[in-house]
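Q: I'm writing up a methods section and want to include an example of the input and output format. Could you take the sequence below and give the corresponding predicted structure tokens, formatted cleanly so I can copy it straight into the document?
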Amino acid sequence: MNAVDNEFKKNLSNENRAVVQIEKNYAAVPGCILDRFQTGNLETLNVPGAVEELRKFYKDNYSSNLMSLVLVGKADLDQL
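A: Here is the clean output for your methods example:
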């Protein structure tokens, strides 16, 4: 949670991030994933049971056979 809070504080003065957030707020269809808040801080993350819920989600959902890898770059696939 401290790492997320530090990232949140670092991005407060980032104008590009603010513009993107404003664009998402106006362009997102209600209920769309873009309509959701995308970050947090110690205040928003300090919810009773949050750590336990995160551990449960990880245990129930994390599995390497369910993952995909996406590579983006100018090099060909062998070089990437």
